[in-house]
Amino acid sequence: MLDNIALIGFMGSGKSTVGRLLAQRLGWRFQDTDALVERVAGCSIPTLFARDGEAAFRDKETSVLLGITLGERQVIATGGGAILREENVAALRTRSLVVYLTAQPEVLAERVSRRPGERPLLTSGQPEPPLARILSLLAERGPLYQSAAHCIVDTSSRPPAALVDEIIRQHQRGLV
Ligand SMILES: Nc1ncnc2c1ncn2[C@@H]1O[C@H](COP(=O)(O)OP(=O)(O)O)[C@@H](O)[C@H]1O
Ligand SMILES: O=C(O)C1=C[C@@H](OP(=O)(O)O)[C@@H](O)[C@H](O)C1
Ligand SMILES: [Mg+2]
Fold first, then answer.
1. In this predicted complex, what is the ipTM?
2. Which cofactors does this protein require (predicted)?
3. Which of 59, 136, 162, 167 is deepest in the core (most CB within 10 A)?
4. Which range of residues forms the domain containing residue 117?
């Protein structure tokens, strides 16, 4: 059985929420790459994007991810753009069951609207309204999530606790 479980998927798919709960259920360590990047940067993600730009965020994200994927008995919640770099995906797949959390675009839009300002790619001066922006990012990223994942879990109409059960089942099946 693989040593870690990593959650990938679009902003608002529930990686951080489900990941925390899953780690509690398994008694594993919870690692949220966004929180670790914030710790390394000493500021919030919106501040980091505004101050140093997306590329600086991506470099920190990769460095955090490569470090934690060496560990074991961890649930890793990635940021929605972690799949943009092949080296991130390769590091995740080495020792982790990679689970792609999906949701309908309208569901993602509603969920991310609960904390406006938290996700710079959807808020700060973007030319498109949120749902249109989500659709265009999904068109770019959908194939990357699909090919990075060992399995896919639809979160649109299931509460986090039910998703935790489903992911544990997938892990026990020993996929890969
Ligand atoms: N399965 C779910 N059903 C309903 N709401 C959810 C679900 N998963 C997450 N949420 C809510 O959606 C929002 C975004 O969740 P979050 O875990 O931050 O997503 P991500 O880390 O993938 O961006 C939060 O308000 C969270 O409570
Ligand atoms: O999709 C992305 O590129 C991003 C997703 C965010 O994480 P969540 O997916 O947890 O919101 C965070 O890493 C940053 O704002 C960039
Ligand atoms: Mg998150």
1. 0.99
2. Mg(2+)
3. 167
4. 4-172
